[in-house]
Design a protein that fits this description.
α3 (66-79) packs across α16. This protein is α/β, with parallel strands linked by helices. The protein is built from 16 helices and 14 strands.
């Protein structure tokens, strides 16, 4: 071990971890339900002795970062159906989703970042390579992989800024990796200020996953309700979004509209219906009709339809953006549709990137409405644009989206080069 690394691990093992586990962990165990669940799950998994047949390709994700791994799971199994894939996770919140994914052969919560548990984990699963989705770098994990000659790759990583105080700490951790794949040139520039490792711009694997989902989307058995209609859709909406949308819709005529609430419990649906009625807007629920009446807002009260709805819509609004954080804009963009978002969109990199992609002199692929009045104006503006130039705007968005695909193949090529996939 290099002298700098030796000092780092001395501090990490004798100061950072003991203080965290001895002081902070007991407090979190009592007062934080998610932390307690994770600790109990780690204890149980240590006691389990599942048989593991042969070597594995190891994918680690903190939690929802599993979405970055889905396209890699599929690509690995396409290349070698007999390959065994292990998915580890830090937070238990995504445990069920990971376990339900049929391409995952083994899944287990990551042990605490201690030498003994990590060594036992490696001995049990015999990984030929470790790829880490986006973030969640643990020093002892990377150190033990290096000791066991297990190549490691961090993929779909982003790095917006460098904290001078954390730079020595981050440099040690990044330098423990074998390779680093980042999303953009700006990420590469930031990371090269920290690490000596080669940093490769490989893109974001979620673009590949969204493209696959749209190409293999499952239409509803009642898709005739909306097929052939030139409708506007508002997806994953919250009450704050719905209030702005209702205001805007009351000012517009002849714009068939679909609302897909993020939460479709009965209380929310009933309240949404009341608000629409109060604004003199008629509505129907998707589950209760066979045909969609004219001049009626269609409320989708079933899960799993958004991908197909985006494929058939004229343009879209993505919810969360009048609340606090916008939801992903990738699916409507992948479906080649212009998108409107509210003022809270800067948590989403794709929304920022595509807000710079021009469809004409006045409109971008993602348009931002700061107020409900601006939302009304944008609905009129983009509806007219789509009437006149639908094929042109679709081609522009598709070109920009397609340029950003391909990150998955770079990861699987890396696995081949390291001898983990054949």
């Amino acid at each position: 071990m290099k002298p700098g690394n030796a000092l780092f691990f001395f501090i990490y093992r004798t100061l950072v971890l003991p203080l965290s586990l001895g002081l902070l962990a007991p407090f979190l165990f009592i007062f934080n339900k998610k932390f307690r669940k994770g600790m109990l799950l780690r204890i149980r998994s240590q006691q389990e002795q599942k048989e593991v047949s042969g070597a594995t390709i190891w994918i680690h994700c903190a939690s929802g970062e599993f979405e970055y791994a889905k396209s890699i799971l599929r690509e690995v199994k396409d290349i070698n159906p007999r390959a065994k894939i292990l998915v580890s996770y830090f937070s238990p919140s995504y445990k069920t989703q990971i376990e339900k994914t049929n391409l995952v052969d083994y899944s287990q919560i990551l042990p605490l970042d201690l030498a003994g548990p990590i060594q036992n984990f490696i001995k049990k699963f015999k990984p030929t390579a470790l790829i880490i989705a986006r973030s969640d770098l643990w020093p002892e994990l990377l150190n033990q992989c290096a000791k066991s000659n297990i190549p490691t790759l961090l993929f779909s990583h982003t790095k917006s800024s460098v904290n001078p105080l954390l730079k020595p700490f981050e440099k040690t951790i990044y330098n423990l990796l074998t390779d680093i794949y980042v999303v953009s040139e700006s990420d590469k520039e930031s990371l090269e200020k920290i690490t000596d490792k080669s940093v490769v711009v490989a893109g974001d694997t979620r673009y590949d996953q969204v493209q696959f989902r749209l190409q293999n989307r499952i239409a509803s058995s009642k898709s005739q309700i909306y097929e052939g209609r030139n409708f506007f859709i508002a997806g994953s909406t919250w009450p704050e979004d719905e209030a702005a949308l209702i205001y805007a819709l009351t000012q517009i005529q002849d714009l068939p509209t679909v609302l897909v609430p993020h939460e479709n419990d009965e209380a929310h649906l009933q309240n949404l219906e009341k608000e629409l009625t109060r604004a003199d807007l008629k509505s129907v629920r998707f589950s209760q009709i066979e045909t969609w009446p004219e001049d009626t807002v269609l409320i989708v009260d079933q899960m799993g339809l958004l991908a197909d709805l985006y494929a058939h819509c004229k343009f879209a609004f993505v919810g969360g953006s009048f609340k606090k954080k916008v939801h992903s804009v990738m699916e409507p963009l992948g479906a080649k549709k212009p998108v409107i978002v509210g003022p809270f969109y800067k948590n989403n990199r794709e929304a920022i990137i595509f807000s710079q992609v021009r469809l004409d002199s006045n409109t971008t692929a993602v348009s931002v409405a700061q107020t409900q009045e601006e939302l009304h104006s944008l609905l009129l503006q983009i509806n007219k644009l789509q009437d006149l130039h639908n094929e042109k705007t679709a081609a522009i968005i598709q070109t920009e989206f397609t340029i950003k695909t391909g990150a998955t193949k770079m990861v699987t090529q890396w696995l081949k080069q390291k001898g983990a996939l054949s």
